[in-house]
Amino acid sequence: MSHDHAHHAHDHDHGSDLSPIEARVRALESLLTEKGYIDPASLDALVELYETKVGPHAGARVVARAWVDPDFRARLLADATPAIAELGIGGRGGEHMVVVENTPETHNLVVCTLCSCYPWPVLGLPPVWYKAPPYRARAVIDPRGVLAEFGVTLPETTRITVWDSTAETRYMVLPLRPAETEGFDEAALAALVTRDAMIGTGLPKGIPAAPVEMPV
């Protein structure tokens, strides 16, 4: 294979940095374009959408706003879709959003047991593990064990609630705000919010993954 690659390098210098999967994708795109099945401009617009406009950074904006604005938080928890739209965020996969709030007593975990329904406008494309059968099955049966595998160990007294996303309703978690962030602006707060924290398999930066033992 290395010999062939070297032999053809002088004919395809422009593609020499492509990985095998990238080369296959480019070849498939060229073939579909030639046959008139796809429009390259539309494809570029779709890629730009998922690179710049939708994704976890959008959800992080929603969370940060809820942390600093009690009125927005109330609207978000009461009717998430229009509240999220106030920030210019919405679209396919986010038509019927529900936001559930973590508290010191309750931790929320989101799964789609049937397939991979996921709130694309606020979280982007789902991670591979979210679509995998082991996660989809075990998140419901053993949520505490699943969280431990993600490095999140909660106190035994913390109630874990599992929410099953569907094509009609998709969930996002509003995580707890980390301590000692008083005075942080929205941008600084948003930087603490991870994708996994908004699914429930993680925590914001600044919150310990395991409960801190208090001195007696």
Beta-strand level of the residues, as a percent range?
Answer: 5-15%
Assigned CATH class of the largest domain: Alpha Beta
Order of helices and strands: HHHHHHEEHHHHEEHH
Strand order across the biggest sheet?
1-4
Average pLDDT figure: 86
Say which CATH homologous superfamily of the largest domain is assigned. Answer: Nitrile hydratase alpha /Thiocyanate hydrolase gamma
Structural class: mainly alpha
The value of Rg in angstroms is 21 Å
Q: From the coordinates shown, what is the CATH architecture of the largest domain?
A: Alpha-Beta Complex
Q: What is the global morphology?
A: globular
Number of separate structural domains: 2
Could you estimate the helical fraction of the residues in percent?
40-55%
Strand elements, count: 4
Largest sheet: 2 strands, parallel
What does this structure look like?
There is one protein chain. With 216 residues, the chain is mainly alpha-helical. It contains twelve helices and four strands. It has two domains: 14-51, no CATH class; 55-199, Nitrile Hydratase, Chain A (Alpha-Beta Complex), CATH 3.90.330.10. A two-stranded parallel ribbon has the order 1-4. Helix 4 packs across helix 5 and helix 9 (133-141) packs across helix 10 (143-149). It is globular and about 60 Å long. It starts with a helix and ends in a 17-residue tail after the last helix.
List descriptors:
globular, two-stranded parallel ribbon, Nitrile Hydratase, Chain A, disordered N terminus, mainly alpha
